[in-house]
Amino acid sequence: xxxxxxxxxxxxxxxxxxxxxxQGVQSYATDYGAFFSLQQAQSGLAQSAVEKLSEHKTRxxxxxxxxxxxxxxxxxxxxSALPPLFGEAFMKALIFEHxxxxxxxxxxxxxxxxxxxxxxxxxILDHKALLQEETARLVxxxxxxxxxxxxxxxxxxxxxxxxxxxxxx
Length: 169
Ligand SMILES: [Fe+2]
Ligand SMILES: [Fe+2]
Known about the structure:
The chain is mainly α. It has one domain (2-41, 53-162): Up-down Bundle (Four Helix Bundle (Hemerythrin (Met), subunit A)), CATH 1.20.120. It has 4 helices and no strands. It has helices spanning 2-43, 47-81, 83-112, 121-160. Helix 1 packs antiparallel against helix 4 (121-160) and helix 3 (83-112) packs antiparallel against helix 4. It binds fe (ii) ion (2 copies). One fe (ii) ion binds at residues 11, 15, 74, 78, 146, 149.
């Protein structure tokens, strides 16, 4: 029982860290968009602005890379520790979602990894919109997945904290 509770607590604690990292990437996405709009309103895209945009994009990508690393670690812990708690059928669905998220994040990183040199202003604008959309969708996917897991884990906690006696069932 102590083992199961420790697993539940660890997964929930890791979700908190993941949520903080997601907030980080979201705020980079907002900065990126705001800087872009400002430059466009002022003067179109000067070379120095393109360089600055490139820096914003690099920060977003670094943040996505960090999230990818953290999630790989988290998913493998869940996939090795949760089967006795969740059972085979639920684990199958969970692993499916892990692979969906893993593929999506890899796609977002590839999409984001583009050099701006030689691109038209419209191309850069399209690229920025794409990266922002992908990031928002990714954040949503991960949050929904983590929320669902937590609902299940909080229910299971009742079983493993001994709150339910055999007389209750
Ligand atoms: Fe998960
Ligand atoms: Fe999780």
